[in-house]
Write the structure tokens for this entry.
Amino acid sequence: MAYEKEREIAIATTTLAAQLTEHIRYQSTTSTLEKPDDSPVTIADFGAQALICQGLSAIFPDDPIIGEEDATLLQESPDALTKVTENVQRFLPQASDDQVIDWINRGNGQISQRYWTLDPIDGTKGFIRGDQYAVALALIEEGRVKVGVLVCPALPFDPQNPQENQGVIFVAVENQGTEMIDLDHNKSCFIHVNRVKEWHELLRIESLETRHSDRQQTQVFDHLLGITKPPEKMDSLAKYGVVARGEADIYLRIPLPHFITWKENIWDHAAGIILVEEAGGKVTDLNGKPLDFSCGIKMVNNYGIVASNGWSHRKLLETLHTVNRER
Ligand code: AMP
Ligand code: MG
């Protein structure tokens, strides 16, 4: 099967990284640093990036990795670096501070014909709060996603039994469908988007952060389409997994007027997009353009995101066009 090795290594490295992030999440003190853009980053973000970059580079030494984090902040904070190294040593006992810095900085690769993109913890605020977060890794070739793996340790495997079996690994490979695997790798099944075709039965999901999508516009949008259920709110790329397995139907990201120049980061979407598409759904930007991962860490050729269960996509785009025109 195509991409068999890539799929295997992506699952193995992200599963290990999620064990590290969960271990830190269950400790009462999560060390948090502040990035230059004021967003938080924790020792778990750095530890997860170190483990994944180490594992990927060992098997695919020529593949660039574009990860969200770099080690500059850690190098200025010796206490935090010690904690990251101690956590990495639980998996790689010989790891030194210098190696940890080197592995994290392997995530500073350049976009090329083939590369990996990594968000070691997407939804860091959700992680700190004890809500949803995701470890996200994707392989891109010629600007298109070929393999996507998303580990959501706080998402129930079976939404009907939310207390049982916490943790899901979503995996998709181009033309091979989307699977859901439990964290112990004991259970797996193929998943599909919801096929219900009544607008009033559809559920929209959106970011918990009010600054990340324009809620005024989405309210008008719901009204025009006859969507009556209140939207579910969730941090991180986990929203894509939830759409892929048919628990929600529509995920919109409409830049707010004062963030109109905001461009999405490749690592915030790549792994999620292939999950939805391989599960029978569709993902484009708000203008209906395919998402372009060939131009840099920012998706400068796209504007906003719309992910759907597929059949609703054309009507969603038409309605978005109307909402925009009426503003
Ligand atoms: P979510 O949990 O879906 O809100 O996504 C979290 C991601 O939103 C973070 O990883 C940021 O990269 C990204 N983000 C930060 N600021 C903005 C913004 N103004 N608009 C859209 N996304 C943003
Ligand atoms: Mg992120």
Summary: DSSP finds ten helices and 14 strands in the chain. The chain has a mean pLDDT of 95. The pocket of adenosine monophosphate (ligand 1) is lined by residues 122-123, 207, 209, 211-212, 235-236, 259, 262, 265, 268 (CB under 6 Å). The radius of gyration is 19 Å.
